[in-house]
Design goal:
Layout (H helix, E strand, L loop, with lengths): L15 E2 L6 E2 L1 E4 L15 E4 L1 H8 L15
The chain binds zinc ion.
Length: about 70
């Protein structure tokens, strides 16, 4: 990809929606209890999250929930 990127006229970055608030999800949060450094898995082990929910859940805080929403990332 790095070879063709300088030749592109435009770049479109796609993002999933946060599993908690629907904002653009720029991070993948491991939701499985597996603590190994590398864990291969899909939706059963990872969830797309926005920056706010990634920070909250990585520090062990409970997510705010959909009612408060996110301003986006
Ligand atoms: Zn979120």
């Amino acid at each position: 990809m790095l070879d063709v990127l300088p030749l592109a006229d435009s770049v479109t970055k796609l993002a999933a929606r946060c599993a908690y608030c629907g904002a653009p999800a720029l991070f993948s949060l491991r939701i499985a209890a597996d603590v190994r450094q590398e864990v291969v898995g899909g939706a059963d082990k990872y969830a797309p999250v926005c920056r706010r929910h990634y920070a909250q859940l990585e520090t062990g805080l409970r997510p705010a929930g959909p009612a408060q929403g996110c301003a986006g990332a």
